[in-house]
Amino acid sequence: MLSEAQIAAYQAPENLLAERVIMITGAGDGIGKTAALSCAQHGATVILAGRTVAKLEQVYDAIIASGGAEPIIYPIDLEGASSEDYDQLCSHIDEQFGRLDGLLHNAGILGQRTPLNNYRSDVWEKVMQVNVTAGFLMTQALMPVLEKSDSASVVLTSSSVGRTGRSFWGAYAVSKFAVEGMVQVWAEELEGLGSVRINAINPGATRTNMRMQAFPAEDPGTLKTAEEIMPSYLYLLGADSANVNGQSIDAQPHR
Ligand code: NDP
């Protein structure tokens, strides 16, 4: 396996994702939007999942304008989606494509930045639902179509506070620890079984709305853009990581 520094400097071949079907959650904004554009640019047919259709439509238009394969818009609110909704999603993908080659769980919410002593239970539940449970339910429901791919990659999104706890990061930090754990458990279960691999990615400080919400006083100009962290995403979603399973990759290893 490449080192994290090598992965961060990975130069994806232009056709890396040709003929691949890749679903991205939270594809309307921030890192997910850039990942969708980048996957399409590298040949993928992208399923744009998210809760704000107007944003997904903008990404759809941008992909078409740049000559990418026609994407699919799949509106879904991860806060309220049930197992049945994910089963339906699986049937749609099966009918339309017969398989799924990549699944990037990117959608996430920050919740409150406050001591756990004061943390609201309703916010806790929402953060755990969107950041952890939705990833579990969706991956579980989509396993039949992932297994139909000759080499499927599932990527869940972690964070630095999912590796070392930090005060006032509340449910967000706990949810990202859970993501790391889920990847380890699932990866060991999938190892040697078939063609599905699962890894985590930690984007590192990246210039998005979420980062601005977390650090309102920070100068965004000092941060990497989502475009700059794409090499690690493309590496994990493409064939060059076919043997990588159960890893948690820092997209910005030197920060
Ligand atoms: P943004 O807030 O910019 O984007 C998050 C995306 O998730 C949006 O498209 C949003 O949709 C979508 N989303 C949120 N809730 C739901 C929901 N209930 N159902 C469907 N979609 C939803 O965040 P980033 O791009 O910064 O973050 C992407 C991922 O990277 C997250 O998992 C985050 O935790 C992680 N991360 C980010 C870092 C950073 O510095 N930016 C650092 C470490 C980790 P909508 O546009 O409709 O609100």
Explain the overall architecture:
The chain has 255 residues and is an alpha/beta fold. 42% of the residues lie in helices and 14% in strands. Strands 3-2-1-4-5-6-7 form a 7-stranded parallel sheet, with helices on both faces. Helix 5 links the parallel strand 4 and strand 5. The radius of gyration is 17 Å and the shape is globular. The model has no long low-confidence stretch (mean pLDDT 97). The site of NADPH dihydro-nicotinamide-adenine-dinucleotide phosphate has 28 residues, from helix 2 and helix 7.
**Total domain modules:** 1
Give the strand content: 5-15%
CATH superfamily: NAD(P)-binding Rossmann-like Domain
Please provide the ordered H/E string of secondary-structure elements: HEHEHEHEHEHEHHE
The set of bound ligands, ions and cofactors reads:
NADPH dihydro-nicotinamide-adenine-dinucleotide phosphate
List keywords for this structure.
single chain; 255 residues; alpha/beta; Rossmann fold; 7-stranded parallel β-sheet; 8 helices; 42% helix; binds NADPH dihydro-nicotinamide-adenine-dinucleotide phosphate
What topology does this entry show?
Layout: H1 4-8, E1 21-25, H2 30-41, E2 45-50, H3 53-65, E3 72-75, H4 83-97, E4 102-105, H5 121-146, E5 152-157, H6 170-190, E6 196-202, H7 209-214, H8 230-237, E7 248-250
Short characterization:
The protein is α/β, with parallel strands linked by helices and 255 residues long.
